[in-house]
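Researcher: Go.
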Amino acid sequence: MMRRWMRAALLALSLGWLVALPAAGAAGQAVLWQVRLERYPQAVAYVSVYAADGTFVPDLTAEAFTVREAGQTRPVTAATATQPGLHIALALNPGRPFAIRDARGVPRHLYIFYQLQSWLEHEQAERHDLSLLTLNGPTVTHTDDPRAVLDALTDYYALQSRDFRAMTPELTPLVHAIAQAAAPSPRAGMGRVVLFVTAPIEGLQAADLELPRQQAQNAHIRVWVWLVAPPSAAESPQARWWADLAAATGGQFTLFSGAEVLPDLQQAFDRLDGVYQVAYRTAQSQPGTYPVQVTVRAPTGTLTTEEGRLDLNLQPPQVRWLAVPQEPVRGTAAIRLEVAVTFPDGQPRPLRRSALWVDGVQVAEHTAAPFERFEWRPEPDLPPGPHRVQIEVEDALGLVGAAPEVEVTLGPAADTPTGTEATATRPAPVQGETPTRPAAATPPATPALAVWLAAGFAGAILVAALLWAWRGRPRARGTGRPTRSPSPTPTAWGHLEPLPPLEPDWPTPPAVALTHAEVILGSDPAQAQVVLPDRSVSPRHARVWRTPEGRVFVADLHSLAGTWVNYAPVGAQGAALEPGDVLHVGRLGYRFVAPPEATP
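Model: Structure:
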């Protein structure tokens, strides 16, 4: 009996230092976490390479990696090793074995607490994504502050440790921990680890661990198990099942009876933390999802990742108007049309073509810069009136975007007679027709008209003399009309200070003093309080107002070129305007400045 106990103790001690092999085998394992499009056509595959003992393999160069995208080998341009941190989910599943004391009277759970405390006190902040789970459910989730996890762990021990002996361990904390570790990563390439500290679970069967094992393997989560039990449990089926789960996921298994040395978590996690950013040029030019697989020539052998995917969410360029005539354009005068081009998918690309369409017909095309600007001179046979105008652009991938159609009104040609001008140039009568006097001819003045003019002039002289006499009469002291003092100039509660134009040929805007509680900015004096005479400014472009509390807001009034605060578009609902913010009205740029007494 004694020999059997000693064999069990030796086995438990050895299991305390066991590091399970990754599922990939003795050569190690390569994990493809993610493939991102950084800046088209540059793509980056995030690959972690692990040795047979589960530690990260450093010092690999770009020549060690081969990328296959959609069945084609793509050249690797760089491979950079970084440490993005780990997803670590700590799950506590206490039971009666946690409360067993050693010969010195120290319970097992206290040794576990000290080991976790040592790790959390020395762990670097903002490095790992940390979660703490217990039988009561998640306590802390997805924090990068080790101190927050240590505080929660300390509170849990203070409130629950005296009841560990009466608790019944379950599989639920492990399931919740795997779900937390499988959540999306705040940084690409973060490894995933679950540390499950548990007492033996009564009635547990090997089949019960099959689903957690599959979930962990699918998410590349390493499961570390600390089984808190007496040394004799080393030969139990449950100990074997936990060891198999750790081995299948590339994790660790430790049986802790109170006499073993628990693993140094900080050192162990440091050896797991690492990812290679493998850069290559994608060959794809159309939106879609493309399979990617990476092969690594590691020192221990050739490793191949599972198949990942590259999502190309390429979108057509977005085109918005900057300059379009607001008033009718006379005759065949040249009309300047200008747009701004942005890329909503965040992948700027060069343009290769732009076209101007009028009434559904292409009238001009650019195959070289400037793509955003057209000088349109209407054809002489184009009738006066409104015409539909649109500019479309095509990027280097062949994706086409177009500005919304707008109406440009053409007036009559400059040499077309109108009004009295047309009457004065009416055609001569044909032979045999009696000539008539033009209707616009002025008849000679009659003597009666001269008399009326003389009488009117004399009356005006008489009225002037009476007024002079009235002003010269003496007035009673203090009874004169009071002198009206000039109206005081309103105090400005804010200023729009002009910024240098973004393009050399753009105008510098005028300075604007904001003196009324509400100010309308625009190009039409009849509709705007502040007139900005620029073709990118609509007649009634934007509204700036100040609330009684001193808050300042700006809203766009459905303008063509748009209104922007800190380079973000503003809609009709409005946006806050703070001192120092950059405001663009069309292409005119300002910085909002408010005196200290006007700032709430």
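Model: Residues 1-24, 414-455, 461-487 have pLDDT under 50 and may be disordered.
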